[in-house]
Every structure is written in structure tokens, then in C-alpha cells.
Design a protein that fits this description.
The structure holds two protein chains of two kinds. By secondary structure, chain A is α+β, with helices and mostly antiparallel strands. Chain A has helices at residues 2-8, 40-45, 49-52, 68-71, 84-90, 144-153, 173-181, 183-193, 201-209, 234-257, 298-314; strands at residues 22-24, 35-39, 59-61, 63-67, 81-83, 107-109, 131-132, 214-221, 226-229, 265-270, 273-280, 283-289. In chain A, a hairpin with a 2-residue loop joins strand 10 (265-270) and strand 11. In chain A, helix 8 (183-193) runs antiparallel to helix 11. By secondary structure, chain B is α/β, with parallel strands linked by helices. Chain B is 29% helix and 25% strand. Chain B has five helices and nine strands; from the N terminus they run E-E-H-E-E-E-H-E-H-E-H-E-E-H. The two termini of chain B are 19 Å apart. Classes of the chains: A alpha+beta, B alpha/beta.
Chain lengths: 315, 211
């Protein structure tokens, strides 16, 4: 009790969206048979915000053990959740009061990724009597040739394999430095864009411009400096450079205040014009597209390209 | 069920890409479309919502080289993955000949993968079909993302029927194993067709022994 009073005298109270402040305690002894060890902090970080807001926030970062018998039956559903009463019972005495306010029948999600490595191998056994499918004798299909081609494009782990490229001419050295330093990332970007062409910012935007629905692409730094690409005309290019990165950052700050995760992309529909912006680290890609939403998969592809560009830039 | 046109000597097969929302079904078709020669495929037709999600289906027709004197055509479809579009999924599954089940390898998608597989079984049952008899293959997609679920857990969740089917790890956004998955599904489909139709289609050789 004295310990709890001391803990409650600590000054601040974290908002649910902020990282949980933790006070380290001693760890429990080694995992008992039939139990799974997990850190309380891991569970709290994965709680929906409406549940976190119900908790007392003087949280103890402790490790505790959950019964495998509660976890095992749920593995086949792809999701594990324990009743709050069961969860509380598994906690050490010092941590239980923090969860007093929770409805005992509420379900507490347990992230499988954090306990998976502790599961006994027999937990994931195949159903008894399961037989492997008979392998058919190979028939040539319209796709067999492409299977062969792709087997040369990728290694066994899925990483793209590209032929060695010629060294860059001396005069272009400074502009391609960032590209030559990040050969692995560039290979991945080539695979993403499905091209063997040697890439730089301009070439990447040319590839993006070929995506269905896009009319132009422009890449800026987040301070507005233009890197590559273009818009409808010079005036629009200048306006995009000066407005879009700052607008995006403002919107991102606002969405964070709402307790949402980082803004990844935004689309403005202005009559027949559509403008989408993608910001990642210090890069801002602005695309103008035709008078309809992105075709399926296009937005995700552009996001993936921007992520790669940001990693190459940062390398 | 394949459509056989005796007069035109043509056989048409239907392959459906199934799986939870945003797992990569459309991305699979987009990659296939981009790699096939225009002379062997039609346009990729995508009907999407304002949020770039597949609304009805994606459709890609593929013309193939002759199979024992019959020209083969493959129609590739995807279904919308969101839960609310179940009636559309049922429609798209009609007369399906093979299924590619695309699973999302991210940890937080496991429940959706399981639910989608259950939904597939349920919708097939409504047509008196079963995954025990229908050619299908599993694709564990998004293997390029850091910290995804291991394939043994995906196998445990999704490959737990009487017959253990083949699975492929894939990265649909780059094309890794997209064609390998489709090729295998097509082989299963053609072998089944050979077994069941040699009497119906004179001149069609029986499947090789052991298929």
C-alpha cells in the first residue's frame, strides 16, 4: 500500500495517446511450464484507446505469466483475447489495482506476435490424418514462361536480382551519389516499378506517370525545394512547391492531435481536378490525377515508392 | 465448371482470387496484366469505390495456347474483400474452377485471414462445392514487410483441411511468386479437367498417371 501511495504521488498523468510511462520492477522468475511470459507494457501498447483511457495510468512495467490453457484454444482463430477478470488474476498483486476499473467481462487483446516464440512446438501441430496433396505432373500453362522469367528476376527470398549496372559518368557523380550508395534499396525500387532501368528521381517519376489515371508527378523536399517532376505549368509547380509540403505537415499535426496515427496521404478533390500528396520523412510527392479516385492498388504502390525514396534519401 | 464450346473448340476456365480486404488480390491481377503480352490478354477491368477498394470484382481474360486441340481461355477474377460485400463474392464464385486464396502475412490480419477462409468455405457450400474437391492454392502475401507472421502459423491457420495444399510466399507488389501461384492453380485445374472430361472431349488425352 505504501508503495502504491508513493507511486500515486508521482506528478504527471499521461494522455492515452502518449507513450506509457513505466516504472521498472524486478522480473518474475523463469517461465513456469504451461505459462507464457509477457510484459504488461506490450499489452497496454496494443490496447484500443478507449480501454487505455479507463486505466489508472501509474503503470508498472512488469513481466507476468499467462496460462497457456487460455491461449491455446484461441490460436486457430488468429486472435487472442482474455477476459479482464482472467487477465487481472494473472497479474502480480502490485499491478492489479491499475485494472480495477475495467469491466471483468471485457476482452483484453493479447498480441500473438509477442508470445509466439514461446509456444510449445506441438501447439501448431497438423490435424491428424491430413494428407499432402498429390503433386500433379507438370503441364505447360500460359504462365509457365513467366514463372521461369520471374525465377531469374528474384532470389529465393523474393529479393530482386538485377544485373550489375555501369558506373555513373563522372559529371553526374554528385547527383547520383545517394542512388549508388543504396544499391539494395534501388534494386527493391526497380522491382516495385517493374523495371530494369537505372533509376534516379526523374526516372522514378516517369515510371509513376505511367500508372493509370496519373497526369503528373512532382517531388519536393519538405521545405519546398523541388527535386524532380512537373505539374501542369510552371506557375502550378511553384504553387505546389510552396504550399503542399507545409499544408501536409499542418494536417499531420492536426490529425495527431485527434489521436490518429501519422498522416500518410491526402487527396483534394477540386471540381475536375484531383491532387494527392504523399509525405514521408523529408520527401513530399504530389500527384495530379484524372477526375476519379485511384484505381485499386495505385495509391498503395505510390506509397510504397515514396517509402523507398525516403529510405534511399536517408541512406 | 469449365465452359466447353465444341463448335468453336474452346474451353473457358474461371479462377477466382479470394482473401480478406487489402491482402493483395487486385495487386496480383495488376501484375499479371502488366506482364502478359497484350495479344494474350484483354483489358483489366476494375470496379472500385472512392477509397480505391474493389467494389465488385476485377476481371482479366487470358487466352492460352491450345490444349489438345482446344483453345483455352482463362478468366481471372478477384472478389471484394470487405465483409459487407458477401453477396458479390457469392456471385463471383459461381462456376469457379480454381481458387487462389491470398492471405495477408501481417500479424494483425490473422483473424481476417481465418474469417475470409471460413467465408470462402461457406460460399462454396451454397453452390454445393467444397475446398476438398476444388483446386486451390494458398498465397502468403506481403512477405517483404518486416515482422510478419511465420509461415508455419499461416499454415496452421489456413492449411488445416483433410488435404494439405501447396502454399507460396509472395510479394505481389513486386510480382514475386505471383505467376508461380497462378501457374500451380492452373496446373491443378487442368489435371482435374483432364481426369473428368476425357469422355466428353474426344481426342483429349487422359491425365498423366499419378496426377
Amino acid at each position: 500500500m505504501a508503495l502504491l501511495r508513493w507511486l500515486k504521488s508521482k506528478p504527471k498523468e499521461a494522455a492515452p495517446s502518449e507513450p506509457i510511462e513505466a516504472i521498472h520492477l524486478e522480473e518474475l522468475p523463469a517461465r513456469a511450464p504451461g505459462k507464457i511470459k509477457i510484459r504488461l507494457r506490450t499489452i497496454l501498447e496494443n490496447l484500443p484507446s478507449h480501454l487505455r483511457s479507463q486505466l489508472s495510468l501509474e503503470v508498472l512495467d512488469t513481466e507476468f505469466q499467462l496460462p497457456l490453457t487460455e491461449i491455446q484454444p484461441q490460436l486457430a482463430t488468429g486472435k487472442i483475447a482474455l477476459r479482464a477478470s482472467t487477465f487481472r488474476a494473472a497479474l502480480p498483486d502490485s499491478a492489479r489495482p491499475a485494472f480495477d476499473a475495467l469491466d471483468p467481462n471485457l476482452k483484453i487483446p493479447i498480441p500473438i506476435r509477442d508470445i509466439f516464440s514461446q509456444l510449445p512446438p506441438e501447439t501448431l501441430s497438423r490435424p491428424s490424418g491430413q494428407q499432402p496433396e498429390e503433386q500433379p505432373q507438370k503441364i505447360e500453362t500460359p504462365f509457365s514462361l513467366h514463372v521461369e522469367e520471374d525465377s531469374r528476376r528474384f532470389d529465393s527470398t523474393g529479393k530482386p536480382v538485377t544485373p550489375p549496372s555501369k558506373p555513373a559518368p563522372q559529371s553526374e557523380k554528385s547527383s547520383v551519389d545517394v542512388w549508388t550508395k543504396s544499391a539494395e534499396l534501388v534494386k527493391e525500387l526497380q522491382a516495385l516499378l517493374m523495371t530494369d532501368e537505372k533509376l534516379d528521381y526523374t526516372k522514378v517519376l516517369q515510371q509513376l506517370n505511367q500508372l493509370p489515371g496519373l497526369t503528373s508527378c512532382q517531388l519536393n523536399r519538405d521545405d519546398g525545394r523541388k527535386i524532380a517532376g512537373n505539374a501542369r505549368d510552371v506557375k502550378q509547380e511553384a504553387a505546389i512547391s510552396s504550399i503542399v509540403p507545409n499544408l501536409f505537415k499542418t494536417l499531420d499535426a492536426n490529425t495527431k492531435e485527434m489521436g490518429l496515427e501519422s498522416l500518410e496521404t491526402v487527396t483534394f478533390t477540386c471540381g475536375k481536378d484531383q491532387l494527392s500528396a504523399f509525405l514521408r520523412d523529408h520527401l513530399c510527392l504530389t500527384v495530379l490525377h484524372d477526375n476519379r479516385p485511384f484505381r485499386p492498388g495505385i495509391r498503395e504502390k505510390i506509397q510504397a515508392v515514396v517509402r523507398h525514396l525516403a529510405r534511399i534519401e536517408a541512406a | 465448371m469449365p465452359i466447353i464450346n465444341y463448335a468453336g473448340k474452346e474451353i473457358q476456365f474461371k479462377i477466382v482470387y479470394y482473401g480478406p480486404a487489402l491482402c493483395g488480390k487486385t495487386t496480383n491481377l495488376m501484375y499479371i496484366h502488366s506482364r502478359l503480352s497484350p495479344s494474350h490478354r484483354g483489358d483489366l477491368i476494375s470496379l472500385a469505390t472512392a477509397a480505391d477498394r474493389t467494389l465488385f470484382f476485377d476481371f482479366l481474360p487470358v487466352t492460352a495456347t491450345p490444349l489438345q486441340g482446344f483453345k483455352t481461355k482463362f478468366q481471372l477474377y478477384t472478389v471484394p474483400g470487405q465483409v459487407i460485400y458477401n453477396s458479390t463474392r457469392q456471385l463471383v464464385l459461381r462456376n469457379v474452377d480454381a481458387v487462389v486464396f491470398v492471405a495477408d502475412s501481417q500479424w494483425d490480419k490473422m483473424e481476417e485471414n481465418v474469417e475470409s477462409m471460413r467465408n470462402l468455405g461457406e460460399n462454396l457450400e451454397k453452390q454445393n462445392l467444397s475446398l476438398d474437391d476444388l483446386p486451390y492454392v494458398l498465397q502468403f502475401n506481403k512477405r517483404d514487410i518486416q515482422d510478419v507472421a511465420p509461415t508455419n502459423y499461416l499454415e496452421y491457420l489456413l492449411n488445416n483441411r483433410r488435404k494439405r495444399v501447396r502454399s507460396h510466399e509472395s510479394v505481389a507488389s513486386t510480382g514475386f511468386n505471383v505467376f508461380a501461384t497462378l501457374d500451380y492453380a492452373t496446373q491443378l485445374l487442368l489435371h482435374k479437367f483432364n481426369r473428368e472430361n476425357k469422355a466428353l472431349v474426344p481426342g483429349l488425352k487422359s491425365a498423366p498417371h499419378g496426377a
